[in-house]
Structure formats: C-alpha cells, structure tokens
Amino acid sequence: MEKTIKVGTRKSKLAVCQTKLAIKMLQEQYPDKQFELCYITTEGDKNYSTDIKMIGGKGLFVKEIEQSLLDGKIDIAVHSLKDLLPQTPEGLVLSGIPKRNSPFDCLITTTEMHSTKDIPQGAKIGTSSIRRTAQLRHLRPDIEVVPIRGNLDTRLKKIDELNLFGVIVAESGLDRLQVDIGNHHKFSLQDTILPAAGQGALALESRADDQYINDIIHSIDDKDTRLSVKLERQLLAAFGGSCNFPVGAYAHVDDSVVTMHAMISSYDGSKWYETSADRSVYEATDFGNEIARELLSNGATEIIKEIEGSN
After folding, report:
1. Residue 66 pairs with which residues in a beta bridge?
2. Catalytic residue among 75, 83, 105, 210
3. How far from chain centre, in Å, is Cα 280?
C-alpha cells in the first residue's frame, strides 16, 4: 500500500486553511494519493511578544516545521512565503509556489474610507509590522501606531477593545479565511503600502533529495509567481534577510516583462528610499539584487548601519 503523504502546518486558523488549500490543489492533480495534516507548534505560536524583531524576526513561525521535515516526520511543509528566510536551509527546497493571492495590505476601519486622507488626525491604527509602521509614519506622521499581535479574529477585536480607528492586515488572509468583518469597513492599501517580500504567496517545502514528493508538489507550481517572489526575496537577502528592516517589495509579471517596486526606510519613516524598474523576464535573473544595489547606493546603507547598531 502506498504511504500517506504527511503535510505539516502551524495550528493557527489561517495556516490550517492555507494548508488545506494546498492539499486540495495537490489532490486535484493526484486524486489517488493520500494526504495527512500534521500540526506543529512553532516559537511564534508560543511567544506573543509585541516586538517580533526581539524574538527572532523572520523564521519565527517555521523553524520547528523545517526541522520536522529534516527529521523525516513530515514530507511537505506549507508556509506563508513571507514568513520564510530568503535562504532555504541546506537539505530543503521550495518545490512548489502556487499562483499568488493578493499580495497587498488593507485597512479594516470603523468608518468607510475613500482615501488615506479620510484617516482622522492623530488616529490610532494597530499593527506590529515594522514595515507597515514605517510606511504609515512616512505617509502620515500624525498617526499613532498601536502594537498588536494575534490571529485575524483577535486583531479585529482589538479595534473596539483598544479604541482604534482600524488595523492593517493582509488581504490574502481575509480572502482565504473569508472573514466576516461585521460592521467594519475594508480599504485596500494597494496604492499606499508596499507589501512584504512574498506576501500573498504560499510555499510548499520538502527535502531536496525526495524526488517523488518534489515531482508531486511541482505540479501546482506557478512560474510567474515563482519568478516574482524569487526577485522580492533576492532583494530582501541583499538587505540582510530578516524582518528587522522596514522593507517593502513587490514584483509582478505581465507577459514577458517583470516590474519591481521596492522601498526601505528608517523605523520612523523619516529616511526613505524607493525605486521601481522593468526588466524582460529573460534578463531578470539578478533583478532583485540590482534594485537592492540601487537603493543601497542612494543612501539605504546608512539606514541598515543605524538599525544594526541599535539592535
């Protein structure tokens, strides 16, 4: 009898939902295969400190899952790609990156909005992301950012509990969970805040030497998404690879052209560097590094030195 393929995930509602979506995609390609959900608790699930960068930054939600892969306890790990460090651990490979959902953030608010100008002076907005915080402060220095963590339901409850004007969340999470936001309103930040590298994409990780599993996973790979997130992660790696820097990156493919927009700033958003450019997909192998070098040469090196010196 053919063995059951074990798929590892965090226990959070969103992680489980995303893993079930991935299994459904695999099952459609391989209806005869059996997949089993395996739950793994990570450091990020146990430690609800509001300052993520002080408890490990990127990798906080994946280390234990990747170790289970290396130990052979599971065959596939399903992650939110933005949670992964740019360098995949030795012995593992990102064997499948399905078509990306929305990569953008949105603002869930108590009142309807048509523009960021509708945010009241001195409004309180909840987020613990240093990337979102820096971009908010750059856009509107008057806004008071309130640190919050937890799942989507918890963050939405914080609007009323902490008397916030709103909270920033990823659109992909709302879409996948089909969250009922009740009497609150959703405002897309697509044109306002650059997303995290890999945001909105799923990553299926496996052992590099397990060709049987890798072939199964590759059946749901999307080449345009893979190229886009590869370039975003390339840029992130050039800046040090963690979430300790306020970095936004978004690349997308249109026919044979890939467009990339990126930013890096100080924590308070006062020092700000951003750029955008196009490349042919056939000449984009090093595009993320090119964008990073441009930002660094324009002054971003000083931001990195300052932040590394303060941590």
Report:
1. none
2. 83
3. 25
